[in-house]
Amino acid sequence: SRSSAASDVYKRQEEILNEYQLKLIGGDITYGEISVCVNVFGYAYEKNILRSTAKVGDLIYITGPLGEGRRGLEDWKNKQQTKYIKKFFNPKVDFDKSKYISKYANSCIDISDGLYSDLNQICFSSKVGAKIFIEKIPITYDLNDLTFGDDYELCFTAPDHSTQYLAENGFYMIGEIDDSQKIEFYEANKKIDLKQKGWDPFA
Q1: Whole-number Å distance between alpha carbons of 156 and 59
Q2: Tens-place pLDDT, residues 116-171
Q3: In angstroms, what CA-CA distances link 102 with 43, 108, 176, 195?
Q4: For 179-198, what is the mean pLDDT?
Q5: 167, 173 in Cβ contact below 8 A?
Q6: Which DSSP helix (H) or strand (E) runs through 109?
Q7: 3-state SS of 21-87?
């Protein structure tokens, strides 16, 4: 029933608020079949890291594997009990990683809409391009992991002199920023054309 579904939403909402020590301070009134609106406010660790401040010569990093959310959804649909199901239904936010990269990153974005789509936001806002080396990306399934989304990781750019510090702390260097104003993917030095581009909420 609708009341039962709403009760489940409120319960999960309370669990998340408690887990991340957040306070619910307001709400809004909307009309429709289903409408869930969430705004979260906080403070920057070291500085405001924007989409528009990537620099030519920056290296591109991600904070974790891609495709685990997609795998979790498929396993759930197929009634398979795997560790990936939690990745889809209950993704965890790693604030320690966020805090660490704030010392080095020039630009940053979450990649919940897919690496291709969200990295494109950085490139567009910064008026730069990117070369991505697929063999450097920890992929769960296949190339569709680059565009599917539901991976609650970060993609960020940082100057190359930060490489040692970032590599030693579990971040994956997957490419570099250039001045081409387009994104190109390479595998074994061969350019790859991705058929899907990622989630578009306005499509």
Answers
A1: 8
A2: 999 999 999 999 999 999 999 999 989 999 999 899 999 999 999 998 889 889 89
A3: 12, 9, 18, 33
A4: 87
A5: yes
A6: strand 107-110
A7: CCCCCCCCCCCCCCCCCCCCCCCCCCCCCEHHHCCCCCEEEECCCECHHHHHHHHHHCCCCCCHHHH
- CA pair distance 155, 60, nearest whole angstrom: 7
Contacts of residue 19, defined as CB under 8 A and 6 or more positions apart, other chains included, come to none
**Residues, the chain, total?**
203
- Residue 174: which H helix or E strand, with range? strand 172-178
Quick check: 107 and 54 in contact, CB under 8 A? Answer: yes
Q: Phi and psi (nearest 5°) for 96? A: -65, -40
Beta-carbon contacts of residue 24 (< 8 Å; ≥ 6 apart): 13, 17
Task: State the Cα–Cα distance between residues 124 and 104, nearest whole angstrom.
Answer: 21
| Alpha-carbon distances of 162 from 8, 49, 157, rounded to whole Å | 44, 16, 10
Report pTM.
0.85
Query: What's the pLDDT tens digit per position in 6-41?
Result: 788 888 888 888 888 888 877 666 666 777 777 788
Tokens read off for 164: 């040692």
Strands 172-178 and 59-62: antiparallel
Identify the H or E element spanning 195.
Answer: none
